[in-house]
Amino acid sequence: MHEPTVAEALTRALKRCCPRCGAEGLFASRFRLGERCGQCDLVFRKEAGAMTGQMYLSAVVTELFAGALVLLLWFFTDLSTPQALALGLPLVVGFSYLVLPPSMAIWVAVEFLSDRVGERADRRA
Q: Is 114 exposed, middle or buried (0-12, 13-18, 19+ CB in 10 A)?
């Protein structure tokens, strides 16, 4: 099996597939990762706290969305503050739920790629 490029691993993960081999089944359910790949046996979450990066990734993307939404509502509408909050809060919460699975998938690929680089360094040493 050839090692996937960075782009291949990220694309596979965004398609909800294993970043190493491309087999389906990255998620057990919408918001829960599977334990490991059924084909190549890659462990998706190696240790407790391994998904901290995913939390930061989803938080940053959601905050950027919220900031852009605030600017749009401020400059392009004449909504009062309560009206803007009533419109904006559900949009931001909904967006955060939409961005959670892709950020989890991306982080699995990032961990796979970083572990692969570490394994190569260990072999050279």
A: exposed
**Eight-state DSSP code of residue 44:** S
The tokens for 102 are 């892709």
Cα separation of the two ends of the chain: 24
Integer CA distances (angstroms), 70 to 35, 42, 96, in order: 38, 41, 15
Contact 69, 91 (CB under 8 A): yes
Determine the residue type at 9.
A
**pLDDT tens digits for range 59-95:** 999 999 999 999 999 999 999 999 999 999 999 999 9
The whole-angstrom separation of Cα 46 and Cα 48 is 7
State how far the Cα of 100 lies from the Cα of 97, in Å rounded to an integer. Answer: 5
Q: What is the CA radius of gyration of the chain?
A: 18
Exposed, middle or buried: residue 24 (CB in 10 Å: 0-12, 13-18, 19+)? middle
Percent of the chain whose pLDDT exceeds 70 = 92
